[in-house]
Write a structure and sequence with these properties.
The complex is a heterodimer of chains A (596) and B (166).
Chain A (H helix, E strand, L loop, with lengths): L6 E6 L4 E6 L2 H7 L2 H12 L13 E4 L14 E6 L6 E6 L3 H8 L3 E5 L6 E6 L2 E6 L9 H11 L5 E4 L2 H4 L7 E3 L3 E3 L4 H7 L2 E7 L9 H16 L6 H4 L5 H7 L21 H6 L1 E5 L9 E8 L2 E6 L3 H8 L7 H14 L3 H16 L12 H13 L4 H4 L2 H8 L8 E2 L2 E2 L10 H8 L12 H6 L11 H18 L9 H12 L5 H21 L11 H5 L14 H15 L9 H7 L6
Parallel strand pairs in A: 1-6, 7-12
Antiparallel strand pairs in A: 1-2, 3-4, 3-6, 4-5, 7-8, 9-10, 9-12, 10-11, 13-14, 14-15, 16-17
Helix pairs in contact in A: 1-2, 2-19, 2-21, 11-12, 11-13, 12-14, 13-16, 17-19, 19-21, 19-23, 20-21
Chain B lengths: L1 E5 L9 H11 L10 E4 L6 E4 L8 H5 L5 E8 L8 H4 L3 E8 L9 H5 L6 E2 L6 E2 L9 H4 L9 E5 L2 H7 L1
Antiparallel strand pairs in B: 1-8, 2-3, 4-5, 6-7
Classes of the chains: A alpha+beta (596), B alpha+beta (166).
Chain lengths: 596, 166
């Protein structure tokens, strides 16, 4: 069948066995692939109420129908699970080249269950799946080292998905890495793989992805790229990449600074796009992406050359300004350390910023202070290995702040640390964070796009923001079935032009929009089934009630009452009841095929 | 002689060229059978392009005991823009080396001598496969589509003129 390989690979780590089964094509048609397919499989594969740390909790590797073709930005892989951090669904996206290689090996989806008795590496060469002991050689390796080791030992063209030492130690924000700089960062997948004793999956595929008439598809894609992807409007992604956001967000007073105590950072100019362009060595791309947004930088730090991709905006915000760091070389080094130890930078910077805050306030001396480079650069290893202060920091923001009796200082939703936009400077982000299906996240809906970047929406009102976030969540949900990356602002019409090749029929734009709503509601049902309630759709109170004293967002405040009112408006517009539960009418209208 | 080159400095490692190449020749996306490839180290970002230099090299042709590597006249007209376009123009006349599958015995002599590693045994048929410039519209150039990159380029060297005279 075209675009899909029609196969699911099941890996049972407890037994050390693998099996192949047909992909459920009924689900693939109803939910396309990517996020939709992940959620449908999660519904089926995860017993309701399962302890996320149970060995039965699966980790899913999910592709989209366009992985392994020339469709720009669609090389993305989802690492999915019921998150041990949030207790709800988690779909974490990563670029690079793993997903296409998995398709060439013949699989749309991998379901990893069980717990290996000893640390293990899994290799996949087309239809041959092998289990290798990870000790003594691979266990303990940092991410760039294990990638090279597996290219040397297994296959020079292998694509490697791995955890770093942080994952082995089950750090809650341990991530999953591929192609060294690409991370499925959020939600603790690295910790879960560490718990499963799975150090890495290496894949080599030599097969084909069929698309029907390949020459006709090539011709149409050439046009689609010219008309929609490589447009003047979209080239900022290539020319600057995400660091472009630093000046914009800082200028709006929404740049998290010193554990969110400020929305404007005095040294933002030292870590903005202009500063990064001065140390840029090269442009890099994910597999099958013509845009090439990645920046490869090089800078001298502490007498050595630090080279690598990134940091991206969220890292600059959380590990830069939020830690009071305006030293670009130190930031580059910190990013490299997080990459190598295998940790999400958003949570790393957020937790460290909190520890600095607790130290500065005299609540608990962690020996780290805002702007102090030496202790800052020592922190990643301590967190990853859970030694020294790392032992306590591994609690994560929420539990660390609670431990010291200051829960208001933790910037998290559903126990997931918030990314780099302070809602006091961009009101719409309040609902974006609180209603995000995986906790504190900016990738489900993005009011920043119009409240800050285009300025088309006022940033200091909640009027219209419930509807705005709903639309954004539908858009991202269908986008992540494709899987299309956020750096192609693909619209429903463009999606339908591509889906026409998959479904071999005309596709209406409205089908794409409804697909987004269907997937979002399926995710809500899953989360409710796992115990989520309306009380979990919260925002840190401080962001609602304590205005900044200075800067562009000074004095602005959403207010707890307005926020509660807008949450109800959000539920109502969604066709959910006042407890945030989708109504039967809504589910039937959308064609969601499961019920609580 | 027209041939394709990948710029080590400009290539971003997106592999769009390999994908398009395989789709054009194999009727499906299968980059392991692409006629060119970009060797990328994900950590260091070092790139090495592997493309066929056609008649400018011709080591495969010299090594072939069966005269299965044939010099064929070709007009190359890449789709879209490419870096060298202003220099070489819209269209380039010249020669390309193609595999005559009737004559090829898959003896492997050419696999041994190719300096860029771009002639191999086909995984499904017992013959060699190599770059034929897509019958004049190289898909690798077309799909190196980002105007700030244009890493896959059409080059021309003077050896063709000698061939043309002969």
């Amino acid at each position: 069948m075209d675009f899909y390989q029609g196969k699911v690979l099941r890996i049972d780590l407890s037994a050390g066995t693998s099996a192949v089964e047909p992909l459920n094509m009924e689900w693939a048609e109803r939910y396309i692939g990517g996020k939709g397919l992940l959620l449908r499989y999660m519904w089926e594969e995860i017993p309701p109420g399962l302890d996320p740390w149970s060995e039965d909790n699966p980790v899913f590797l999910v592709t989209g129908p366009f992985a392994g073709t020339n469709v720009s930005t669609s090389s993305r892989l989802i690492v999915g699970c019921k998150s041990p951090v949030t207790g709800v669904l988690n779909d974490s996206y990563v670029g690079g080249s793993f997903a296409p290689e998995l398709k060439f090996a013949g699989y749309d989806l991998v379901i990893i269950k069980g717990r290996a008795p000893e640390p293990t590496v899994v290799t996949i060469k087309d239809d041959v799946v092998s289990f290798l002991p990870a000790q003594p050689k691979y266990w303990g390796m940092k991410t760039s080292v294990i990638e090279q080791a597996l290219r040397d030992d297994f296959d020079e063209n292998a694509k490697v998905l791995s955890i770093g030492p942080a994952g082995e130690k089950k750090l809650p924000w341990a991530c999953v890495s591929t192609d060294q700089y690409h991370k499925a960062g959020r939600g603790g997948h690295g910790a879960l793989l560490g718990d499963k004793n799975l150090k890495a999956v290496a894949v080599r595929g030599t097969g084909a992805v069929t698309v029907g008439d390949a020459k006709a598809f090539l011709a149409d894609l050439y046009r689609i790229h010219e008309e929609y992807v490589l447009t003047d409007d979209n080239y900022w992604v290539h020319e600057e990449g995400t660091p472009i956001l630093v000046d914009l967000v800082n200028g709006a007073g929404a740049f998290p600074t010193r554990n969110w105590s400020d929305g404007e950072f005095e040294d933002a100019g030292k870590i903005n796009s202009e500063s990064f362009q001065k140390i840029r060595l090269k442009k890099r791309a994910c597999y099958q992406c013509a845009i090439a947004c990645r920046n490869f930088h090089g800078v001298e730090q502490g007498g050595e050359m630090v080279q690598g991709e990134g940091p991206e905006y969220e890292t600059i915000a959380l590990c830069g300004s939020n830690c009071g760091i305006g030293d670009i070389a130190a930031l580059m080094k910190f990013n490299e350390l997080c990459d190598e130890w295998g940790m999400d930078t958003i949570s790393s910077g957020s937790v460290l910023g909190l520890a600095m805050d607790l130290t500065e306030k005299g609540i608990r001396d962690f020996g780290v202070r805002f702007g102090d480079v030496e202790s800052y650069l020592g922190a990643p290893e301590l967190m990853a290995t859970r030694t020294g202060i790392g032992e306590e920091l591994a609690l994560g923001s929420k539990h660390l702040a609670e431990k010291y009796g200051v829960p208001e200082l933790a910037m998290e939703v559903k126990n997931l640390e918030l990314p780099g936009y302070d809602p006091r400077g961009t009101f719409g982000m309040s609902l974006s964070y609180s209603t995000s299906d995986r906790g504190g996240c900016h990738m489900r809906s993005y009011p920043v796009g119009d409240e800050i970047i285009t300025g088309d929406e006022p940033a200091d009102t909640m009027e219209g923001k419930a509807a705005y976030n709903i639309n954004g969540q539908h858009y991202s949900s269908v986008k992540y079935t494709g899987i299309w990356c956020d750096f192609w602002a693909i619209d429903f019409n463009q999606m339908s032009q591509l889906m026409k090749h998959v479904w071999k029929r005309d596709v209406a734009e409205s089908e794409m929009e409804q697909m987004g709503e269907r997937v979002w509601n399926l995710g809500r049902l899953f989360n409710l089934r796992e115990g989520l309630t309306a009380a979990d759709d919260y925002l840190p109170e401080l962001l609602l009630t304590k205005p900044h004293k200075r800067g562009p967002s000074a004095g602005r405040i959403i207010g707890a009452d307005t926020f509660a009112e807008k949450t109800q408006e959000y539920y109502s517009l969604r066709g959910w009841d006042t407890s945030g539960v989708p109504t039967e009418e809504k589910l039937a209208e959308l064609g969601v095929d499961v019920r609580l | 002689m027209p041939h394709v080159m990948i710029s080590r400095k400009k290539c971003t490692g997106c592999h769009m060229c390999e994908l398009a190449c395989s789709a054009y020749h194999e009727g499906a996306y299968r980059p392991s059978v692409a006629r060119l490839f970009s060797e990328c180290n994900p950590t260091t970002a070092e790139i090495k392009g592997h493309t066929c230099l056609q008649t400018g090299c011709a080591k495969c042709q010299e090594a072939c005991p069966n005269d299965a590597i044939v010099t064929k006249r070709i007009t190359v007209t890449p789709k879209g823009f490419f870096e060298n376009k202003e220099k070489v123009g819209d269209s380039v006349e010249g020669y390309v080396l193609v595999v005559d599958e009737e004559k090829c015995t898959n003896c492997g002599e050419c696999y041994e001598v190719c300096p860029t590693g771009v002639i191999h045994e086909h995984p499904d048929r017992e013959v060699a496969f190599k770059c034929d410039l897509c019958d004049g519209e190289p898909q690798c150039i077309a799909f190196c589509q980002n105007k700030y990159v244009y890493a896959v380029d059409l080059k021309v060297d003077k050896k063709d003129k000698e061939l043309a005279k002969a």
